[in-house]
Amino acid sequence: MKRLLFLCALFLGISFAQAQTPQFYYVEIKTNKGDALLKLYNETRKHRDNFVKLVREGYYDSLMFHRVINNFMIQGGDPDSRYAASRQKLGEGGPDYKIPAEIQPELIHKKGTIGAARDNNPAKESAASQFYLVQGRVFSQTALDSLEKFRLKGVKLTPLQRQTYSTIGGTPHLDGNYTVFGELLRGVDMVDKVAIVKTDSNDRPLDDVRFAMRVLNKREAQDLERELLGLPPKKGLFRKLFGSKGPYKLP
């Protein structure tokens, strides 16, 4: 009987240690200008899953931010940048498929968000690998009024947009035209540091700024989500022995 109870307790402990799938995917970005931590939105599942797949395959390792515009954004993800010659024009490379647009009104281009680059296709489908991290700037209410009148041709900003762009900042004119699929939880200052580097006439940094990425494993993601709630990481024998350090899959 004691043996049976022990086995039951062991089974329950293992099950508990393996349970509690994280709520989001998190991606660590490492650069020579600092590191950052990215949360991918579940509302943009196609972009989320495609990005995770590429990161896990090592697709982005040693690529560079090939297009950098201060007070706007930093763009990367062109595989041609891995072995690019100095001053080589970049921005056309990537897988031969596109991601259907997942543009949503509440997912806006605030500072620190990640968006999917694209060409001028009418369906606003995203490039498969190229992305940008938003820097932008903070706008006064008067500047937002002017933006509505001239650049947005009379389209009114929502209260969310006005509140966000007058406090956090960002690039409001991109809203509704590109898919935003995540945001930086840490390391927004990395974007600022990259954004101010000297560039050539094609907006490519004169000194290469390369990056590497990895998806946090299940245990790291669980601990991060507890930390964000103000809770300590879970400990204990069962978690130490059976808590997963491998990948996980979200629905």
Which short descriptors sum up this protein?
single chain, 251 residues, alpha+beta, Cyclophilin, 8-stranded antiparallel beta barrel, two-stranded antiparallel sheet, 7 helices, 10 strands, 29% helix
Summarize the structure.
Belongs to the cyclophilin-type PPIase family. The protein has 251 residues and is of the alpha+beta class. The chain is built from 7 helices and 10 strands.
* Name of the CATH architecture: Beta Barrel
Cα radius of gyration in angstroms? 21 Å
Mean pLDDT: 92
**SS-derived structural category:** alpha+beta
- Shape verdict: globular
User: Could you describe the largest sheet, including whether it forms a barrel?
Assistant: 8 strands, antiparallel, barrel
The secondary-structure element order is HEEHEEEEEEHHEHEHH
| Total number of helices | 7
Q: Which bin fits the share of residues in helices? A: 25-40%
CATH class, named Mainly Beta
Total tally of structural domains:
1
CATH superfamily: Cyclophilin-like
Q: Main sheet: which strands, in order across?
A: 1-2-9-6-8-4-3-10
EC number: 5.2.1.8
Keywords: Isomerase, Rotamase, Signal
Organism: Sphingobacterium tenebrionis
Protein name: peptidylprolyl isomerase
